[in-house]
TrEMBL record:
Capsule synthesis protein CapA domain span: 17-269
Spans annotated as Disordered: 163-185
InterPro entries tied to this protein: Capsule_synth_CapA (IPR019079), CW_Biosynth-Accessory (IPR052169), Metallo-depent_PP-like (IPR029052)
Name used for this protein in its record: Capsule synthesis protein CapA domain-containing protein
Length: 335
């Protein structure tokens, strides 16, 4: 009789480290750093490059051409070299669902998409989420494999809910128009939650990066808090965001984690609290089987201050940062 053979039990997915930081652009004093993209963010690469997956928000129109939106007070645009700079800094995913992604209209988008496609297959590679040729592509996650663990990252914006923000309602992608992943209104919210549910079926760890809240506010809005719980219920293990240009509270959300506001990271202006920043690194242990919930086992900040050159530098005495973080956790209802 033939000898029975046993099928080896597959190894469970292993833990991963995920580093997240806030808003990045290349305006003002930062623009000349793109003359050499490989060193543009060199002074601040350590914590991002050390993680298995690093994610930031690229807060700018990408590409060349177009005209600045006359309805907006601030308009940003960076050449495709911005993607090279992020990749060289150790960033794996750039979120672009934000209220500056179409500051120069849709004319630059064909060139931007060509650069995004090239970045995805470059060495090192960089994925862009939250911006697409149509709404399905805009909401599609990036999937990264880390030693057998699949990490899905997706991005969406709710900046239209901020009464202080520039008008960006026409930035949204549709079935036949390129643009951002817009999660404003019931239909946009449902689309975002469905995208998270689909990502959760295919990945071991799901990260949702939102552009949300109100500029200048240090406590998350009720909308942010409700959406964070809904995202976690839909399958997001890590929920992070930016838009306030200030740090907001972070802490555990069930087995996962939420960081409502990551502030600025590489930014051309600094003033008081807007200069306070850092990298948040999360250790995440996936569930032993697909369909279970991953668990964030450790969270640690590397605090920094943005200097006159627009780049963050580590702070040696973190006592003020830790005290502020405790206050922000309290107003966010997090421990």
């Amino acid at each position: 009789m033939p000898t029975p053979t046993s099928t080896p039990t597959p190894e469970p997915p292993g833990p991963v480290t995920i580093a997240v930081a806030g808003d990045v652009h290349f305006e003002g004093t930062l623009r000349s750093r793109l003359d050499d993209p490989t060193t543009a963010l060199a002074p601040v690469t350590r914590d991002l490059a050390a993680a298995d997956v690093a994610i930031v928000n690229l807060e700018t129109s990408l590409g060349r051409g177009g005209s600045p939106d006359p309805s907006k007070r601030y308009t940003f645009q960076a050449p495709p070299a911005a993607l090279d700079a992020l990749a060289a800094a150790g960033v794996d995913v750039a979120a672009m669902a934000n209220n500056h992604a179409l500051d120069f209209g849709r004319e630059p988008l064909p060139g931007a998409f060509r650069a995004i496609d090239a970045a995805r297959t470059a060495d090192p590679p960089l994925a862009v989420v939250g911006l697409g040729r149509d709404v399905d592509e805009a909401f599609a996650p990036a999937e990264l494999e880390v030693d057998g663990t699949t990490v899905a990252v997706l991005s969406a914006t709710r900046a239209d809910l901020d009464p202080t923000a520039d008008p960006t309602g026409d930035f949204a992608a549709t079935p036949d128009r390129p643009g951002t992943a817009d999660a404003v209104g019931p239909a946009g919210t449902r689309r975002l939650l469905r995208a998270v549910e689909r990502a959760d079926r295919d990945a071991d760890v799901v990260v949702a990066y939102l552009h949300w809240g109100v500029q200048g506010e240090r406590c998350p809005t009720d909308d942010q808090r409700r959406l964070a719980f809904d995202l976690a219920a839909a399958g997001a293990d890590v929920v992070v965001g930016s838009h306030a240009h200030l740090l907001q509270g972070d802490g555990r959300l069930g087995p996962g984690y939420v960081a409502y506001g990551l502030g600025n990271y590489a930014w051309y202006t600094q003033s008081g609290a807007t200069a306070s920043t850092g990298v948040l690194t999360l250790d995440v242990r996936p569930a032993a089987t697909r369909g279970g919930r991953a668990r964030v086992t450790r969270a640690r900040w590397s605090p920094a201050l943005i200097g006159a050159d627009g780049l963050p530098r580590p702070v040696r005495d973190r006592s003020a940062f830790d005290a502020t973080r405790a206050d922000l956790q309290a107003c966010a209802g997090l421990g």
